[in-house]
Design a protein that fits this description.
By secondary structure, the chain is an alpha/beta fold. The protein folds into 2 domains: about 200 residues, Rossmann fold; about 90 residues, UDP-galactose 4-epimerase, domain 1. It contains 11 helices and 12 strands.
Length: about 325
């Protein structure tokens, strides 16, 4: 591992995605400060990096706290993830505005006021900014297509893309926004797509599971693939950036295809799939720009991603790993 002079402040750094991004950054020699309301390090501990970073209690919706955190940690870059996800945003709309929008504004403001220190803000937008699938004629949807979310969570991300553009054009903020799809992997927390995790988790532990939407397409993105693209976006040369917002994807597969992949790994998996229901997400995203500008390539296909996921769960529950 090569050490660097970079210190990355990761907001939401003790959460699911934040912990994996911290792991990836540490593995590539960067110093990390996990800035979060929660100081629970259980995911970081499971990834064996809890002792290799600093955890700082903080609230992104408090602008002075964000500025103080940057100044006192000597952060050179910010990876901004802190947000209320789909279900929490729906159930707590005012809190979602405070955290998702005002918190992001606090990060942008702090980065601009400390622009001699902060070199870039890389932040999580979401594929949730897109309209439902029936609004698109193209086979694959690129970043210039219609954004018209049908969830409050998606709407907060759409607004943040607008304010990021203003901060970039009017105040010179160096930022990169990423639009991940459906993140999966060990230790995933609850969220709008948490039921998808059970396609893997229930059979891994010998439990049955029934899921709808069998013929509908999901973009399955392993959390470590998301982690590596956040790192690449954080350190991509500015001259390589043709845009500031990027789709970042994983592997397209229907829910039935994903379930069949689980069955190939676990032949005794008790999975029942129906075609009932309709998912509101647009998943067929074009990520040509991320490949070209950021050098992002998917490392985990469904088989390798699901197998590592299953074996991590089985190991934690004292079960034998599944062999290839």
């Amino acid at each position: 591992m090569t050490t660097t002079d970079n210190t990355i402040l990761v907001t939401g750094g003790t959460g699911f995605l934040g912990s994996y991004i911290a792991e990836d950054l540490i593995e590539h020699g960067h110093d990390v400060v996990a800035y979060d309301l929660s100081t629970d390090d259980h995911i970081l501990s499971k990834l064996d990096v809890a002792d290799e970073l600093t955890i700082r209690h903080g609230d992104v919706s408090e602008p002075t706290d964000v500025v103080r955190a940057i100044e006192e940690t000597g952060a050179t870059h910010i990876v901004h993830l802190a947000a209320l996800l789909t279900n929490s945003a729906r159930d707590n709309p005012r809190a979602a505005l405070d955290v998702n929008i005002q918190g992001t504004n606090a990060v942008f403001e702090a980065a601009c006021s400390l622009d001699d220190q902060i070199q870039r803000v890389t932040w999580a937008s979401s594929a949730a900014v897109y309209a439902p699938p029936h609004n698109y004629n193209a086979e694959y949807v690129d970043e210039d297509e219609l954004v018209y979310p049908d969830t409050l969570y998606g709407a907060t991300k759409e607004y943040n893309e607008h304010q990021a553009r203003v901060y970039h054009e009017d105040y010179g903020l160096d930022h990169v926004a990423l639009r991940p799809t459906v993140a999966y992997g060990p230790y995933r927390e609850t969220g709008g797509s948490a039921f998808l995790a059970n396609i893997v988790e229930k059979p891994a532990l010998g439990e049955s599971f029934t899921v709808e939407y069998g013929d509908q397409v999901i973009d399955w993105q392993h959390v470590r693939d998301i982690a590596q693209v956040f790192r690449k976006a954080t350190f991509a040369d500015e001259t390589a950036l043709s845009q500031r917002v990027y789709n970042v994807c994983g592997v397209l597969a229907t829910i039935r295809e994903a379930a069949n992949t689980v069955r190939e790994i676990l032949p005794d998996a008790d999975l029942e799939i129906s075609d009932d229901g309709e998912l509101p997400w647009t998943q067929n995203l074009d990520m040509t720009a991320a490949r070209t500008d950021l050098g992002y390539e998917v490392n985990y296909n469904l088989e390798t991603g699901f197998r590592s996921y299953i074996n991590t769960l089985r190991e934690e529950h004292g079960l034998d790993p599944v062999q290839q």
